[in-house]
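S.,

As promised, the zinc ion run. Input:
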Amino acid sequence: MQCKKCNGELEVARSCRRVRMRCTSCKEEYQIHEVANELDDKTVSILERYTAIIYD
Ligand SMILES: [Zn+2]
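Predicted complex:
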């Protein structure tokens, strides 16, 4: 996953009950629905894990 602003790498950032994608380079945060069309398999599997934790 790449940042739309700087092409840096996005990582999954979880805070409380919300999960965002955050750029490791410029620190821009994206809501999941903003990048939903671009989610790759790796990111989806991470998100599924977080969802399991959140709703457990
Ligand atoms: Zn960025």
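The beta strands are 10-15, 18-23, 29-31. Residues 10-54 form one domain.

- D.
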